[in-house]
Amino acid sequence: MKVRRVGDAALLIETEAPHRVHAAVLGLAPPEVVDVVPGARTVLVTVRPGAEVGRLGALLAGLALPELDEISAEPVRFPVVYDGADLDEVAGLTGLSRDEVVARHAGAEYVVAYLGFSPGFGYLTGLDEALHVPRRDSPRTSVPAGSVAIAGPYGAVYPTPSPGGWRLLGRTTMTLWDIDRDPPSLLRPGVRVRFVAERATVRGAGLGRAG
User: Least packed by Cβ within 10 Å: which of 56, 65, 111, 171?
Assistant: First the structure.
């Protein structure tokens, strides 16, 4: 880890394991820390005005990081119906069959690296390299909540309806963001995630597709 000072009231930690650093800083609970915000390869630690930033930086530089099972004992399991609008396109881009795409996506274990884009939107690491595909050239104006998607090295589930350019593989009924829940977000950095393939339930004349 590299710890850099950012102005008079913040430290930026550069790391390949932001979720573990996030958990370690929260576990240490320094009284001068106001907020801990993980990103793709950084963790921003903001402190109270007048805090000894240099002393805290030296303390964080030697911080022991917890293992994943210390952060999240059991993975959160998402039941998924794999009928996404981009499933065939992902199969074509990867050279895999639809069934192989589903098997590789559901066969991996993911870790929430950080939250961003919208409330409760977790960027999941651990996606099979064979499924690393680019975002759509033209983003959708609206992606339904519960859409299970991939883009680049990440997986995700859309917590609320929103625009989006990720490739849609399927859908889940799990609620990721609920303002009446404490905390509202089902996911947090360091939480492990598994996707479980389920059969679609036929309603009326047929199935709708996500997206």
Answer: 65
